[in-house]
Amino acid sequence: MTSIASLLRIAGFALLPLLTVGTAQAAEKLTIGLIPSEDSQAMIESSQQVLDSLEKQLGMPVEPFVATDYNGIIEALRAGKLDVAYLGPFSYVLAASVADVEAFAVAETKKTGQSAYKSLILARKDSGIRNLADLKGRTFAFVDPSSTSGHLFPKAGLEQAGYDPEKLFSRVIFSGSHDASILAVENNKVDAAAVADRILNGAVAKGVVKQDDFQVVWTSRSIPESPMVWRKALDPQLKQQIAAALASMKDVPWGDQGMLNGFQPTNDAAYDVVRDTAKVLNLDLRSMK
């Protein structure tokens, strides 16, 4: 089996120094990790109102941290440097296998009213790519080795459709973010890419790209939304306060998901579909335990 350890080594992340948090009972601040689905500054800016509201409701400083890649957040959780984190579904499954964390909430957005999303493989309409067979010999961008919609689900989808992702493309890159992958296709840097549907929709809504420029080649089944996770050892009273504060947040933007309609409870079992998809790729989640 492919070792998850190898995935964690792919990006070659050197963990940035973080201030060490105190014990759960004597916490003086709350540290929150954010996956870099957008560039770091954009991710913090689009999450700032939630972070500010959380800080006010908890009565303690809330310090955000965006790593250079998904695995930076996983490593920070494993090292006990973060209290709470916003992770992709697959990066959560990885984190749960190596760190003492659990999913507790997912965002519900105003636009969809749902807590799920999909992965897309998209190409430019003028590329001539209309189906998966047309990807043969083309260049392709995945987002990150630990990205659910930007790597795990589309790669598994290709295998289930009878294609070997290792042989299908002439060149594969990891762009680092969904935004970067979308722009790579738009600017003809790659022929096609795998991205989250909601991030493409967000880029279109912002006027960064035009929907009519793209051809959707493949769509995944529904993926459980990216969870908020916390350290299991976090003070139980603080956990209750965090969950209640997040549930009350409405009409403010949250990261790459858009306007919030609050956070609803979730649990580890909701991500078994992600574990099942990992099995398609013969990934051994136990190897990092």
Protein architecture, described:
With 289 residues, the protein is α/β, with parallel strands linked by helices. The chain has two domains: 178 residues, Periplasmic binding protein-like II (D-Maltodextrin-Binding Protein, domain 2, 3-Layer(aba) Sandwich), CATH 3.40.190.10; 101 residues, Periplasmic binding protein-like II (D-Maltodextrin-Binding Protein, domain 2), CATH 3.40.190.10. It contains ten helices and 16 strands. β2, α2 and β3 form a beta-alpha-beta unit. α2 crosses α9, α3 runs parallel beside α4 and α5 crosses α10. The longest helix has 19 residues. The radius of gyration is 18 Å and the shape is globular. The two termini are 15 Å apart. The N terminus is likely disordered. It comes from Aquipseudomonas ullengensis. This is Phosphonate ABC transporter substrate-binding protein. Keywords: Signal.
Task: Reconstruct the topology from this structure.
Layout: E1 2-3, H1 4-10, E2 30-34, H2 40-58, E3 62-66, H3 70-78, E4 84-86, H4 89-98, E5 101-109, E6 116-117, E7 119-124, E8 139-142, H5 148-160, H6 165-168, E9 171-174, H7 178-186, E10 192-196, H8 197-205, E11 214-219, E12 223-224, E13 227-231, H9 236-247, E14 250-254, E15 258-265, H10 272-280, E16 283-284
Parallel strand pairs: 1-16, 2-3, 2-4, 8-9, 8-10
Antiparallel strand pairs: 4-13, 5-13, 5-15, 6-12, 7-10, 7-11, 14-15
Helix pairs in contact: 2-9, 3-4, 5-10
